[in-house]
Write a structure and sequence with these properties.
The protein is α/β, with parallel strands linked by helices and 763 residues long. The chain has 18 helices and 28 strands. α5 packs antiparallel against α12 and α13 (448-457) packs across α16.
Amino acid sequence: MTTSDKTPNVRTRRTRRAIALIVGAAIISTGATVAAAVPASAVDCSTVPWMDAGKSADERAQALLDASSQHQKYRWLVEQPAVTPTRTDWPAGLTGEAPVVYPVQLECTPTIVYTDGPEAVRSAGVTDFPSQIALASTWNLDLAYQKGVAQAEEAFAKRKNVLLAPGIGNTRTPLAGRTPEYFGEDPLINGLMAASDVQGIEADGKVAGQLKHFVANEQELDRQTSSSNMDERTLRELYTLPYDIAIKRGSPETVMCAFNQVNGVYICESPLMQKVLKDDAGFDGFIMSDFGSVHSTAASLNAGLDQELNRPIWFTPAKLDAALAAGTLTQARIDEAAFRVVRSYIRAGLFDNPLPAQAVADASNAANKAVAKQIAEEGSVLLKNDGVLPLSVAQGQKIALFGPTASRTVTTVGGAPTSAVSVCSLTLRFRPTSPPSNTLPCEDVVSAETALTERAAQVGATVTWNNGQDVAAAAAQAASADVAIVFGYQRMGEFSDLTDLKLQGNGDALISAIEQANPRTVVVLQTGSAVEMPWLGGVQAVLENWYGGEQQGPAIASLLFGDVAPSGKLPMTFPKSLADTPTSTPAQYPGVFSDGSTTRPAGSSEIRQVSYSEGLAVGYKWYQSRGIEPLFPFGHGLSYTTFSYDRVQVTPKSTNGEKEIRIMFKVTNTGTRTGTETAQAYVTLPSSTGTPGSRLVGWESLTLAPGEHANVTITLSPADLADLHLLQYWDAAADKWATAKGTYGVAVGGSSAAAIATSFTIK
């Protein structure tokens, strides 16, 4: 099976004739004012050409624009305009005009509401799914699709029909604040996971999905005033490749350009939008900005930007009229941008499936909660196990839990109310210096304390919980328990990067004290990125749960007791220390200013220069090429059984690089329990390409009983080789992908640490 076989089929673009009359277009964010509407009786929508489902999306979009005035066309170039002449609350100096007023839109155009939400819809009364890094740890493309379907269903029920998700990043540094929103360090997993996720979002023809944040938006520190500087090959092979893959395999309706610059040019006015996305990848949707990431009118539109997110600042009618009059912008470009937006809305079903009149109070349901639990189970990674797991406790025995995030009970760290930590606060997007903001729902989160207490009761065992603030008292309690489970956490999110890879809330000291007091100590990590583990040698097991969402408690209980066998695999490398990472110099991260300092001068708006001098050596490629042993390699993840690999062969042994290549091997369950293994295949390119390390080219998950084996074939089809660039490198001089002649090494195994087992030749 190829990795592409695992991807659900690209959804068929479906549109249906609206039953209800939809009038008075509005593109609004939560809480925005809806544009003035034409009376409902003004026209029979079945008679207008842009509502004729028998026509193509292109024909319908063109018909609407042909009937529109110039300023009605402008309306599609922004998300949320000022819609009443009395509005006076625009920030001074941004719009150049206040208020911004648009004419009433044509009849029979829909209300469109955008919402954020890589993890979950930003609203109360929805399912709080695990973080995207947890989803990536499942290596399960079908599950990513199911999550997208569930999220879109809830978005629509909440009167939202454009979902700003999923996100794509390359985890260049594990310090990056939005690491939990992305799919890890490998471009293939990033691209295929995003493709499956967005296919699910758009599957029912009611909600449009989006890829964000294009591109090289790899840190939160100075994200609006920094430049990611790199060579073209690095840009293409690592940072734009996931977008290329996700566009070709997922057909998203929109892509968001990021805040940062790349090589000195703001992305939202960079020619990369047109060349990489629209020309090379064939993206035919529309590109929108992030909020506040536009810096010009004509330059942005001419570079390929189609829509300004949120309120109009640069794409106001006055500024567009002025650019047209000055000749810096053409009518054709205006028409193209409006056409792309309208066509995507029609193609995604937004014209034919009106939002419900009222939002549903609770859009979550049992099926979606089951998806959340499955992601939390399959996405949890068993990093270490010296035999203490699965838990074996009997009548009357005691399980002691430690750490604030094991419970829903809110505790404080150092007495500071803004440092309140509970199992809920780890599921929120937050500003580290203030209480959580733009929150995900917390009301339905089931804590590990609750779930483990219920599960332990089934065998007559008891569970106690201690928040761990008094380390000495916690250690004394651990000494009297039959097993100790310590929860370590790491709060991170948008607006700020981590400063180190240590556990927060004195977690390292707590774990060290507990493991010295109890020889059966299990650590459960609830983090959004890698952490250092100075206590690793003293504990018996480590389970990475990431941010497990509302079903994290039941998932953790099922995994620890062995009701479900761990199967997650790391989508990012865990280093032994921050000094071992690819971005260990100040110039690489956080980047420097003209005076050589890493600290922004007071009052300065100077662009921080971030050097991507590590080039292609990011993630596991860095550790392999530099001979640095990580704490845990990319792809690592244990089960409650063991697996062996042998009989590796490649067919054909010699090829022209365009025909099907099959990597075949045998996997055997050598343990005593049934388990699921994600078998991975890696290829090293010929030395002539200068490509560091190996690269993931495919994987397959298989469940085997004790002693059972399976013959696995990972097929690299011609379509895979062409669309996913599995064996290609970017030839900057020729400005295209190329395949080198020479010997390609092949390795298979349970992680990126697999040794080269065979090879093949491209002539």
